[in-house]
Design brief:
mainly alpha; 2 strands
Length: 332
């Protein structure tokens, strides 16, 4: 299971571990909460990233269900102890037992800051004489929340650079927002609600970026690529039609495609590396020049649409944005 998801589940299991020893094995409340944890764990086994897991958890309302069942668990434990005359305040060790179990389950502790959160909890444990004092101090420092948020922050921080390296600006911006959310969230519920909102916002941004790339670049680039492989009249016409579309739609000459910052970023990080994967030595400059030469050849002697730079804008979230502003920073 993904380590971030496991840490999230451990925080829930810690809660159950506080009450389970005080209840009989056939306790209705214990059975129900364990069934819910089983479902949450099954969902986790089917996810390879914490954000997709959190989306499913939110859709199934699992967090609210757990809160309700945990309350029932606590009430049943208290009622049972009261009936037996054994009701007492848990010891600090009993209150911290679940956290020790979760800490021990973390593999490769040196690779994440999450163990440091647990170590702070254990330091507070040593300084407290009662369970209420221990839980109050742990809660006051926000350590229960940090068990989840530290893992989220580390994961998404890594993904920022990964998205940037693959020329995925919408995804990079989303990961940056998730890092910020991890640092500033005040509750697990805030993480759940805000991460779902950011997920849908990211879906919209990725779709827009993909559509712009398709219309702005690939319509022409694919036609040029076909002509480069087979210089037939049919492929020449495809390049001509693609150039006509570009000028008519954006009002710009096709040469503007290759100087655009968004396209430059994609050429440098995606297209040129892919072309050179087999040991080639194609440069971005040569790629651009060869494509421009093919377009110039294919439209030579043809009457092309009139250029009209006033068309070079697009609408995004109710605003008109100049095409030249569409770059890797647009979504930040």
């Amino acid at each position: 299971m993904n380590e971030d998801i496991q840490n999230f589940l451990n925080s829930y299991k810690n809660t159950v571990a506080m009450y389970a020893p005080k209840l009989p094995a056939d306790s209705p409340a214990l059975q129900k909460v364990n069934q819910l944890l089983g479902k949450m764990e099954e969902l986790g086994n089917g996810c390879d990233a914490i954000w997709t897991y959190m989306e499913k958890i939110g859709a199934g309302d699992y967090m609210n269900q757990f809160t309700k069942l945990a309350t029932e668990l606590a009430m049943e434990a208290m009622a049972g102890e009261k009936a037996k005359g054994t009701a007492k305040v848990p010891t600090v060790a009993e209150a911290a037992a679940g956290y020790h179990a979760s800490y021990n389950s973390i593999e490769e502790k040196e690779k994440t800051a999450v163990p440091r959160v647990y170590e702070r909890i254990f330091q507070i444990e040593k300084e407290c004489t009662t369970a209420p004092e221990f839980l109050a101090r742990v809660t006051a420092e926000g350590l229960l929340l940090k068990i989840s948020t530290v893992a989220l922050e580390e994961n998404f921080a890594r993904l920022v650079d990964n998205a940037c390296s693959q020329s995925l600006p919408a995804m990079a911006a989303h990961n940056e927002r998730m890092v910020h959310l991890s640092r500033t969230a005040g509750s697990v519920m805030e993480i759940e609600n805000e991460s779902e909102r950011l997920f849908h916002q990211n879906q919209e941004e990725q779709l827009m970026d993909t559509m712009m790339l398709n219309e702005f670049f690939y319509v022409v680039a694919n036609a040029v690529g076909s002509y480069a492989m087979h210089a037939s009249e049919e492929n020449r016409e495809s390049v001509e039609y693609a150039a006509r579309f570009f000028i008519s739609f954006y009002g710009l000459p096709p040469a503007k495609i290759f100087s655009h910052p968004r396209i430059q970023d994609m050429l440098e990080k995606v297209i040129i590396p892919a072309a050179n994967k087999g040991g080639g030595n194609l440069t971005k400059e040569r790629y651009v020049q060869e494509d421009q030469d093919i377009i110039t050849h294919c439209i030579a002697g043809k009457i092309m649409p009139v250029e009209n730079p006033s068309l070079a804008f697009f609408k995004f979230r109710g605003k008109e944005i100049a095409l030249e502003s569409w770059n890797t920073d647009l979504f930040r």
